[in-house]
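so i finally got all the pieces together for this one. its two components total, 906 residues if u count the protein bits. some of the lines might not be protein, just check the labels. i wanna see the whole assembly predicted at once instead of chain by chain like last time, that was a mess tbh
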Amino acid sequence: MKKFLLALAFVPSLAFGQNHESNLRKIYDAELSSGHTYENLRYLCKVVGNRLAGSPGAAAAVEWTKQLMESYDFDTVYLQPVMVPHWERGGKDMVKIVNSEKHGTVELNALALGNTQGTGAKGLVGEVVEVKSIPELQSLGEKVKGKIVFFNGPMDPKLIDTFQAYGGANAQRSSGAAEASKLGAIGTLVRSLSNTINDIPHTGNQRYNPDFPKIPALAISTADAELLSQLLADQKDLKVYLESHGEMKTEKLSYNVIGEIRGTEKPEEIIAVGGHLDSWDVGEGAHDDGAGCMQAIEVLRLYKQLGWKPKRTIRAVMWMNEENGLRGGQEYARVAKEKGEKHIAALESDSGGFLPIGFSSSGTEAQRGKLTSWADLLRPYQLWSLDRPGGGADIGPLRDQGPILIGLKPDSQRYFYYHHTEADVFEAVDQRELELGAAAMAALVHLIEQEGI
Amino acid sequence: MKKFLLALAFVPSLAFGQNHESNLRKIYDAELSSGHTYENLRYLCKVVGNRLAGSPGAAAAVEWTKQLMESYDFDTVYLQPVMVPHWERGGKDMVKIVNSEKHGTVELNALALGNTQGTGAKGLVGEVVEVKSIPELQSLGEKVKGKIVFFNGPMDPKLIDTFQAYGGANAQRSSGAAEASKLGAIGTLVRSLSNTINDIPHTGNQRYNPDFPKIPALAISTADAELLSQLLADQKDLKVYLESHGEMKTEKLSYNVIGEIRGTEKPEEIIAVGGHLDSWDVGEGAHDDGAGCMQAIEVLRLYKQLGWKPKRTIRAVMWMNEENGLRGGQEYARVAKEKGEKHIAALESDSGGFLPIGFSSSGTEAQRGKLTSWADLLRPYQLWSLDRPGGGADIGPLRDQGPILIGLKPDSQRYFYYHHTEADVFEAVDQRELELGAAAMAALVHLIEQEGI
């Protein structure tokens, strides 16, 4: 009997590798009955709070996630330095219609876009020109000179995957100010990128063109965008006052936070699993992307709880500065190449802590074929969507090093209600949906570390 | 040209029947960009409110849904009389631990189960015996005599489909009091049927055994069930005070509310689509089952909006009294048989207004094969689960008349947070998820009315 047990002890990876189906069940059972993901997310949201790159919140998040992974006794936990942009909102953003014939002065729900240069306390006033898109702006040419351009392109509600609708509408947010400035506009307003008509403004990244003035760029809520559009239809000389206080400060030193469990058979083959640790400076960054970070740590923690040792190295990575720079993802890839590391797969969760429906991926036909070959193992967990292209912003820079890039794919219906807003708080996350995401990631990582890809 | 248009006008059903794929897209486009489901649900929840069978709220719901369907100009709208039980809660339910050595008196969050005979203002006090299930109760036999039985069987968090976990735990709620009374218990407490540990008590139906005393049966919140269990572990003589005021009154006349659009080619073949109009007397019955009712009406409204006439008759049915009697479903089936109606399919939505992932069904192999043959048409709308058995409580009585019985299958992760509680309100429903459910039902009804099943 003793001999038999010893024999088993010598082949632990075989013992649990022989039955993927049963191991996936163990992962789900452990996560759904004793997972840490939800309580860890509560701490990140409620104690650390929001954490834009360069902010004290981001520093606290770095320190806390490092300590958390150390407390789980992963093989290695370390910080990877990275210089990040440091933008501060600087004060309350304000947008007011000042001369409505119907309503007089009307204050709109507004939030400056990230990286925006503020107007300062003096603000600015201008007439408003409404467009639905950047091409429409460009067709107006000189007519927007001296005006405030109001981008009012809605997300297309007819698209089932709301990320496609987001993709179709976000150029006006990310490049609207740059394009309007080229034509001499003095400021921009942008309809919040949301499927819902309500009063919550959504911030997000925008990039100036360095050859043109940095004009203020503010989001207004969808309800206020509808109102402004209606008032403009009746009154062409409508004027709006903008005030914002954003400032890009000098770069700061920050960190990617990394924890790993070394592989027993092929430790040089690395599977990165992660999310981005930074968030916008409103709300708590619960869905975007506290959820992904806590899920990634949970993948490794489940290995510890189950007493498993992976064949290949599993590495949890909290990337810094996805929201307004992507410096963390870029630095991680640069260092990996410099060190000659071999990533075979990188899995990012950055689409919210909602019900997982599968994985999207980018890679070779062989890599993607391997992923879809696991369909029957994943389907009992409602992971049915395995063939869509995708990946993740932070893992994108790894592409030329050859790993398959994979994105956890949650259902997208509710994401753009919360995205980049004060509403993206812990309470907006459902425990079971979050846990199913963590278990889905652990299940896929398990298959990859066992079989390679 | 005129001739050509006339020719088209004579074959409208062919014109839109030739391309299911394009018609399904039209249904989804219409619903997601100009659906009425969400605003109708808002009215039902916020103006009508909750609506237990026999209550004024139920009468208001009957009248309002009838008027709503008339306003949409369906071919026929009528009420089908049905006698329903009329239970009233009668006052505030109360559960208190009265002699905790640790905490003295502790009030627990409680809600009497439906159909429960109250204690009246005098209440009752007794020692508590904890069990996890009815078999465990039965193994105790006479030991529960004169005691309050506390059923503390949790829903199994490891099951992915939470309805399975509900099914595994609900006997203690539905039959616990009847079984405990047989053994001489004086009252029962039951752990709320929820996946979440919190302070919200969940009511629900329970049935007495007419040969034994009708002892009070109250649910307590999951957090309080955990607390009570912990205290009992340390103090065996713990006593609890119960007070409730429920009373079963004389039966009332109520109605199923029915609206239909007659088929152009086979009007005698009926496709029923519906939900149950009654709800529990707490919250607003938003997910259970205002959502299903508003989705069913929307199926017919979409036909009007799109200018379509179905080949077979489509009938929206709001069944009355699913929660504590099922009289509406039984009467509907009885009348259908009496009239010699021919139902080819019945589709119920009664699993919440959450993200639809497919349909469950019961029927012949041929019927179910026809349903799954549409998989490629439904998959673009994320309707991937078509092979699970199922149906719906209200359509069950139609079974022996031969239709395929179909249940809309939304994802189940969040349902038991809200189910039968004060938290089941309009705000708990996501607009897009609700609309996707309505569109899914319209899509399936369209395929059935075109092709038969």
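Chain A has a mean pLDDT of 96.
DSSP finds 16 helices and 15 strands in chain A.
anyway lmk what u think
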